[in-house]
Task: inverse folding
C-alpha cells in the first residue's frame, strides 16, 4: 500500500484487492461495498483491467461484473482516504461480504 | 399518410388526435418528442424515481427478517439502484440528447444494463438481469400509471392507441372524449372489442405493430366498418371520411326508425330480440334500440372495477336498477364468469399456466361458495321485482349443474328462514359454450329451464383457437362446420325437451349469420344493443322459407370458407347497405 501526500489536505490512497467470495460482486455485496464507500467523504474509484468506475455507484460497481478471483484496484482521494481504503479492503478480503468462499480454496 | 389494416371490432368512423397508452408488459417503442418537451419528460423521469423509491421503501419496511432477510435485501438493493445518481443521469441524458420519451429512455437504459449482465458467462452475474428488469418495470409502472390516470381527465377528443386494451380499461373510457380505439392485439370477439361495441366507440384491433407507427398527437382515422386505421391522413382523405361518416350515421338513423316495429319475418314468424349488457346503464340502450329484454347480463364488472369484493348490496343495487327498466320483460342474469383476470389471479400465488382451461367461471364459483352465495342471494332478492332468470356459465357436465342448483336451493332456504321474499319458481338455465355441454345437451336439458348458446367460447373451445390472439384469430370462425353441427345438436335437443333456447354469442350480432340461425330453428337471440335495429331489419326482410333453404344448404357444406362466402352473399341480397 502506498500513501503519497497530495499538495492540498486531500490524501490519495490506493490498493489492489481480490474478490474472494464464491458468488463474486453480485447485488448484495455490491450494495455493501457502495454503502461502506458512501460513509467516507473521499472520492472512491474502482478499476479493473478495462475501466474505472465510481465506487459509490451501485450501478457502476455492478457493471464491473467482478467474479470470484477478480483483481480490482481501489483508489480513494480525500481527507479520509486512508480509512476508506482500509475499511473496503477489510470488507472484501477479510470478511468476504459475510459470504462463503469457494470450498476448494482451502 | 399511412394506412394499416386490422380487424373491424366496433362499427363507426372517428377522426381525432391519437393518445398512446403503452404497457410495461411489452417493449416500449422509440418515440421522438419536440425538444421543447424535454424538460417535461425529464421531470417525469425524476418523479417516477421519487415515487418508485417511496413505494419500495414501504415494501422494504413491511418485510421481516424471514429467510435470513433475503427478501428485504432484494428490496434494499433495488433501492440503492433507484438512489443511484449515475443511473438517473444516464436516463435523463438520453431524453435530453435524443429527444425521446421518458418511457423509452427508462426502458432503453435499463435494458442495456440488463443485457450487459446477460452477456456474462458467470451465472451469478447473469441472473442480475432479472433484478434490472424488475426495476425497469417498477419505473414504467409509475410513468404509465400516471398516464392512464390522465385518460380519466381528458379535455379534448382522442383516439386511444394501445398495444392491448383490457375490458376494464375500455369500460372506463369517457365516451365524450374517447372517439375511437386502435390496438395492436385482440380479435373481434375479445372482451375489449365487445365493450367498445356496447359503448358505441368505433374500434379496430389486431393492427400488429401499429403503436410503433404512430406518435402521440398524430391525427388518426379509425374506420371500424372496414377495419382500417389511417395515420396523418391528407385533406382529401379526411374530406371523404367526413362524408362517409355522415352516410353511416344516416343509415343508423334509418334503422333506429324501425325500433317500434316487431321482429317478425315476412311470412309471420315472430323472433325475440334481447340485449347483451354489462352495466346497468346499458339497459336503457337496449330499450332505445328496441330490445325486448336482457338475454345476457354479464356481472363481472362488479368485481373488476373495484379493489374489494362487491357486497350483496352492491350486487342487489346493480341488478335492481336494470330490472326496474324492464318491468315484466325478461332479464337473464349470468352468474359471475371470472377467470384469467386480475381478480381471480390475484388470489393465487402463481398465475395459472392455461387459464382458459383452468379455474374459471362456474368452476371458480363452486370453489368459492361464499362469493357465489352472495351473488345468488342478490339475484334471488331482485327476482320479485320482475322476470329475472339465473344463468350458469361454462357448464361442462351434469354434476356441476346439479351442484350449482343445489347451492341455489340452499340460498333459497336461507332467505326463507330470514323471511326475505324471492321467486321460488325462478327459471334456471345454462350457457352452452363448451363442446362437452353441446354434446350432452339432451341430458342437461332435463334439469334446466333454458339453454343459451354462447357461440364465442363454443367456437374457441371447439376449434382450439384463442380468439384474442391475432396470430391464430383467422382460424376462429363460427361458420366452421364443426361449430355449426354442435349448435344444430343443441337446438334439436332443446326442442325435443321443450325448453327455451336462445343464442347470446357474437354470432347473433352478425348480419350474415341471421338467416342461418333462423333456419336452424333459433327464435330468440340476445345481442350487442347497437346491433338490434340492423338485425331486426334483416329479420323483417326474410321469409322462413329462405332461411330454411340457407340452413339446409350450409349444413351440407364442408368448408368454412365456402360457408362464410355463401352466407355473406345471401345476407348481402337482403340488406345491401350493411355490407
Result:
Amino acid at each position: 500500500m502506498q500513501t503519497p501526500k497530495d499538495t492540498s489536505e486531500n490524501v490519495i490512497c490506493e490498493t489492489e484487492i481480490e474478490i474472494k467470495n464464491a458468488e463474486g460482486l453480485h447485488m448484495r455485496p455490491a450494495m455493501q461495498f457502495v454503502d461502506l464507500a458512501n460513509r467516507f467523504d473521499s472520492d472512491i474509484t474502482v478499476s479493473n483491467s478495462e475501466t474505472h468506475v465510481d465506487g459509490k455507484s451501485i450501478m457502476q460497481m455492478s457493471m464491473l461484473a467482478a467474479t470470484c478471483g477478480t483483481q480490482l484496484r481501489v483508489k480513494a482521494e480525500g481527507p479520509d482516504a486512508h480509512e476508506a481504503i482500509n475499511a473496503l479492503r477489510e470488507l472484501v478480503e477479510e470478511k468476504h461480504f459475510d459470504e462463503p468462499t469457494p470450498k476448494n480454496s482451502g | 399518410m399511412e394506412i394499416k389494416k386490422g380487424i373491424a371490432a366496433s362499427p363507426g368512423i372517428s377522426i381525432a388526435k391519437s393518445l398512446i397508452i403503452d404497457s410495461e408488459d411489452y417493449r416500449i417503442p422509440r418515440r421522438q418528442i419536440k425538444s421543447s418537451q424535454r424538460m417535461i419528460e425529464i421531470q417525469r423521469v425524476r418523479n417516477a424515481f421519487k415515487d418508485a423509491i417511496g413505494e419500495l421503501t414501504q415494501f422494504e419496511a413491511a418485510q421481516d427478517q424471514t429467510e435470513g432477510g433475503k427478501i428485504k435485501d432484494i428490496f434494499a438493493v433495488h433501492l440503492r439502484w433507484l438512489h443511484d445518481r449515475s443511473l438517473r443521469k444516464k436516463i435523463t441524458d438520453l431524453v435530453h440528447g435524443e429527444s425521446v420519451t421518458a418511457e423509452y429512455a427508462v426502458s432503453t437504459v435499463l435494458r442495456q444494463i440488463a443485457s450487459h449482465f446477460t452477456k456474462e458467462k458467470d451465472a451469478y452475474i447473469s441472473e442480475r438481469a432479472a433484478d434490472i428488469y424488475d426495476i425497469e418495470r417498477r419505473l414504467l409502472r409509475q410513468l404509465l400509471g400516471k398516464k392512464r390516470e390522465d385518460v380519466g381527465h381528458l379535455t379534448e377528443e382522442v383516439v386511444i392507441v394501445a398495444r392491448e386494451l383490457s375490458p376494464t380499461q375500455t369500460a372506463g373510457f369517457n365516451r365524450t372524449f374517447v372517439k375511437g380505439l386502435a390496438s395492436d392485439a385482440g380479435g373481434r370477439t375479445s372482451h375489449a372489442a365487445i365493450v367498445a361495441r356496447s359503448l358505441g366507440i368505433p374500434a379496430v384491433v389486431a393492427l400488429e405493430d401499429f403503436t410503433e407507427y404512430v406518435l402521440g398527437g398524430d391525427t388518426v382515422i379509425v374506420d371500424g366498418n372496414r377495419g382500417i386505421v389511417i395515420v396523418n391522413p391528407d385533406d382529401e382523405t379526411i374530406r371523404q371520411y367526413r362524408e362517409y361518416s355522415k352516410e353511416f350515421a344516416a343509415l343508423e338513423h334509418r334503422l333506429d326508425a324501425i325500433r317500434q316495429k316487431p321482429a317478425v319475418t315476412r311470412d309471420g314468424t315472430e323472433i325475440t330480440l334481447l340485449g347483451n349488457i354489462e352495466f346497468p346503464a346499458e339497459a336503457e340502450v337496449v330499450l332505445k334500440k328496441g330490445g325486448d329484454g336482457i338475454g345476457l347480463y354479464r356481472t363481472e364488472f362488479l368485481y373488476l372495477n373495484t379493489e374489494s369484493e362487491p357486497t350483496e348490496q352492491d350486487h342487489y343495487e346493480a341488478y335492481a336498477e336494470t330490472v326496474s327498466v324492464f318491468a315484466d320483460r325478461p332479464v337473464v342474469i349470468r352468474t359471475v364468469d371470472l377467470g384469467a383476470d386480475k381478480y381471480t389471479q390475484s388470489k393465487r400465488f402463481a398465475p395459472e399456466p392455461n387459464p382458459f382451461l383452468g379455474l374459471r367461471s362456474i368452476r371458480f364459483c363452486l370453489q368459492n361458495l361464499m362469493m357465489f352465495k352472495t351473488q345468488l342471494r342478490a339475484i334471488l332478492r331482485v327476482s320479485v321485482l320482475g322476470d329475472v332468470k339465473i344463468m350458469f356459465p361454462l357448464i361442462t357436465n351434469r354434476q356441476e349443474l346439479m351442484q350449482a342448483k343445489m347451492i341455489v336451493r340452499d340460498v333459497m332456504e336461507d332467505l326463507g328462514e330470514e323471511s326475505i321474499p324471492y321467486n321460488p319458481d325462478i327459471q334456471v338455465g345454462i350457457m352452452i359454450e363448451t363442446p362437452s355441454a353441446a354434446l350432452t345437451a339432451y341430458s342437461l336439458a332435463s334439469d334446466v329451464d333454458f339453454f343459451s348458446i354462447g357461440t364465442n367460447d363454443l367456437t374457441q373451445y371447439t376449434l382450439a383457437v384463442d380468439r384474442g390472439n391475432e396470430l391464430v384469430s383467422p382460424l376462429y370462425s363460427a361458420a366452421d362446420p364443426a361449430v355449426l353441427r354442435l349448435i344444430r345438436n343443441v337446438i334439436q335437443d332443446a326442442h325435443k325437451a321443450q325448453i327455451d333456447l336462445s343464442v347470446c354469442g357474437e354470432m347473433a350480432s352478425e348480419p350474415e349469420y341471421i338467416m342461418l340461425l333462423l333456419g336452424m330453428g333459433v327464435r330468440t337471440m340476445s345481442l350487442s344493443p347497437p346491433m338490434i335495429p340492423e338485425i331486426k331489419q334483416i329479420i323483417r326482410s326474410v321469409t322462413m322459407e329462405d332461411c330454411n333453404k340457407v340452413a339446409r344448404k350450409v349444413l351440407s357444406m364442408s368448408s368454412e370458407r365456402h360457408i362464410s362466402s355463401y352466407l355473406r352473399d345471401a345476407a348481402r341480397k337482403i340488406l345491401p347497405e350493411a355490407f
Chain B has four domains: 2-24+153-250, 35-149, 257-266+452-522+530-579, 275-432. Residues 89 and 95 of chain B are 10 Å apart (CA to CA). The two ends of chain B are 26 Å apart (CA to CA).
